[in-house]
Amino acid sequence: MQKVAVVTGASRGIGHAISGELINSGFFVVGTSTSQAGAEKISKGISGLGFGMQLDIADTESIDHFANEVKERFEAPLVLINNAGITRDNIAIRMKNEEWDDVIETNLSGLFRITKAFLRGMIKARWGRIINLSSVVGSMGNPGQTNYAASKAGIEGYTRSLSLELGSRGITVNSIAPGYIKTEMTQEIAESNQQAMLNLIPLGRFGDAAEVAALASFLCNESSSYITGETIHINGGMYRS
Ligand SMILES: NC(=O)c1ccc[n+]([C@@H]2O[C@H](COP(=O)([O-])OP(=O)(O)OC[C@H]3O[C@@H](n4cnc5c(N)ncnc54)[C@H](OP(=O)(O)O)[C@@H]3O)[C@@H](O)[C@H]2O)c1
Known about the structure:
Elements: E1 4-7, H1 13-24, E2 28-33, H2 36-45, E3 50-54, H3 60-73, E4 79-82, H4 97-125, E5 128-133, H5 137-140, H6 146-166, E6 171-178, H7 184-187, H8 191-198, H9 209-220, E7 231-234
Helix pairs in contact: 1-9, 3-4, 4-6
This protein binds NADP nicotinamide-adenine-dinucleotide phosphate (NAP).
The site of NADP nicotinamide-adenine-dinucleotide phosphate has 31 residues, from helix 1, strand 2 and helix 7.
């Protein structure tokens, strides 16, 4: 039977690319957007092979509603790609409480809550794949991103601990830590800074969402069954763990 995979933040960028890869691997993909229009666009793009639904990962009620709908309308998902994420950059001395809270709520607390909502189904099936999108910034740090770096480092610690809890149930939990990938998130970076970043990347180019998607797809299939608790870096050589 076709397994259901949930991809949060599937309307564009890395989440969109991962959804396509998972569909090609035979999963039925439920992809999310914070807007109804975004959810409809996802449904249209993957017609019949998946479905788009609305979800605000920073809102506990939205998570509960989404998780119940998925389980009622489809099957309990056995693959969860925690991809949704935001930035609210500012130097620490000027960072507003809201900028800190928005990033931690969305990137870290929301990830914890949605994962919890789908764990029971995976434990019952004694099979599951959880993939959390971290960032190279979680390891390297980045000025102006104390909130984002803290959320991503938190995700990596969460991943390691959860993998220890779930290993005996056949569920693997891994993080992917991309470097600079060409998406709307990185388009916002000033051109002069983009050139400075390129100088730090041995492969001399930014990554492509399709390259991250190929790694996520590998972590979802049977050939990766012996990998768990890892953070896998994909960054053109700019950082090695
Ligand atoms: N791009 C990079 O270079 C890079 C590097 C390292 C890590 N990452 C990580 O990879 C992930 C994807 O990045 P990306 O570059 O593809 O980002 P993106 O292009 O900005 O897309 C972000 C996605 O997250 C969704 N989203 C935003 N806020 C949300 C919320 N409150 N609840 C649910 N969904 C929400 C958006 O949905 P809607 O706008 O449709 O509502 C969108 O689909 C993020 O976790 C990011 O931190 C990216």
